[in-house]
Please model this.
Amino acid sequence: MEEGSGHGTVGIRINPQVGTGTIAESSVAGEYSKFGVPIKTRRKELLAAFRDYPWLTGVHLHVGSQGCKPEMLLEGIGVLHDFVSEVNGGSRINVFDIGGGFPISYNSYDTPPSIEEYAASISVLYPSLFTLHSSLFTEFGRWVFTNAGWTATRVEYVKHDPGINTAMIHAGADLFVRECLNPKDWQHEYTVFDRNGNMKTGQSSHPWNLAGPLCFSGDILAKGLTLPDIEEGDYIIIHDTGGYTFSMWSRYNSRFAPRVLGYKGHEFEILKERETIDDLSRFWGL
Model:
C-alpha cells in the first residue's frame, strides 16, 4: 500500500518465455510455466488490459532460482522492458519487479558471477528502469542469505557396509528436502569436526553417505562423499544453508524444529529457540 495514497499497486506477473536453466524444477520462464501470463501467446490481451484498466500499474517477472545464467535473467528483463515501453511509452507502469534468481556458488572452487556486473548491465541495457519507473524491485533472497548460513549436526552412529560407510545424522529431509529428493542438482560442501570441536583431516578408505533421521530410505542428504574418518559423536558442518532449508521445514515424523543462532565475531545470539514437546503439541492442536 502506498503511504497516504489510499490505494495499492496492482500488477501482472508475466512469463517472458526466455527458456529454462539447468535445474528444471526451479526454472519458471519456459514456454510453459505454472507462473505468469505467457507473453508470446497473450501479448495482445496483456496490452489491452494495461490500456483499459488504469489501476494496473506494475509488472513482475521471474526467470528462475539458481541454474539460470545472468544473461538469461537479463534477457527476461529485456522482454518486459520492451513490453512496458509499448504501454503508453511506459508512463502508465511505475512498478517494475525484475525478480531474483541470481546464481550463487555452493562450492568453494567455483567463482560465482558478480552481482555488481549484473546491476551495471541492467543500467546499460535498460537505463529507463532507473528513470521512468518510480519503483524498481528485486528479490535476491538466495544471494543475500544462503552463503551466510551453515548447519551443524551431530553424528548419532556410523554404519559400515562393504565399500561404503554411512553416518547417521540429526538433519535430513526435514531440513534438506530438495537435497534429499534431488541430490543431482542440490549439493553442499561438508566439514567434519570431532566431539571436542577439532576439525578432522585426511581421507577415509571408503566413501561416506550422510543419512538423516526420518523413516524412509530416501532420507539421505548426500552419497559417496570423500570425507575423513567419522565417529559417533562427531559433528558434520553443512555449508551454505542460509536459504531454502529451515524455511522449507517438514513436520514429517513430528520432528522438533532446531535452534537457530546468529553470530557476529565471537558473540552468539539465539534467534529462535529449539521446539519443545509443548510447542509440537500446540502445532497439532493437542
